[in-house]
TrEMBL record:
This is Dockerin type I domain-containing protein. The lineage of its organism: Bacteria, Pseudomonadati, Planctomycetota, Planctomycetia, Isosphaerales. GO terms for molecular function: hydrolase activity, hydrolyzing O-glycosyl compounds. Residues 156-223 form the Dockerin domain. One of its GO terms (biological process) is polysaccharide catabolic process.
Amino acid sequence: MNPFKRAPRRRQQVQLSAEVLETRQLLTGGAGNTFAILPSTIDEPNGTVSVSFTLDQTHFTRPKGKVAMGIDVVADPSGTLKPLISSVTDPHGDVVPQTIHAIYDPQVKHRQVANGRTTSAVISPITSFPSDASAPVTFTTQVQSTAKTTGKFLLGFYLPGDTNGDGTVDKTDLKVVRSLRGAKAGDKRYSFDADANRDGRITQIDVAYTQQNQGVTTTISPVIAANLDTTSVSNPAARANNMPTARFTGTATPDADVTYTNTSDTSQATIKTKTDSTGNYTVVTPLSRGENVFEVTSVDAFGQTIKGRIAGVTYQP
């Protein structure tokens, strides 16, 4: 999984840094087709931690009742952790079968994945349960450390076959993947998002995953926008107002819970709202005299929490 800079798109390219919301940077293995990022930490040498994620019908469309889910892992580059996705389990604790690492070189041993010899991603066939196919289903990814290392990591979830990052795998994506067969990492033709299993080459296997995911969609997003409404303040350029309120607008995953907490004045109540079905939200926050720095948090149905602080707004009566 590689870090790279954000681009102004729906599912943006991101890299690791402090989570400052208006310039939020994360580490993820994909570009457009990474739709969620979940952080965790392994504290024990050779330890294993579990990270849960939930699929529901509101935010995922699965025409065949299943999805080939891509999951990638990357360690905080400032640490020494060498992580490896060891398994994915269903709500009953059973291992999801056919969850595999794509090994570029068949001679490379499984654990050498953690040392960067091959891809760190897995593709897991996630299905609904016959007892209630419409109910949300929570799965768990097990991540283990190797070589007695510890540290922080991020799990990136992506849709194999979603070549343009629009959250949908369709015939346009299939056409792109087919056209790139034979391309390898380093070639001008190579596209990371068309490489469904992230093994560094685009082959018929990537075409097969794209075909398997035809019609699959998600509205889960790995980013949240928090923008000061300049019409709500008296001096937009200075982010200042002569009235004790400010209005913010933004976008996040549809139906996500969004909160604004004034970290400059903890006596102020936390403002809560919910994004609408298209992911938009608006909040009006009270302002205390002086600078007001807000911490903005969104929590979505997938299990993803995004948190960061935005530039302050000053109240000058």
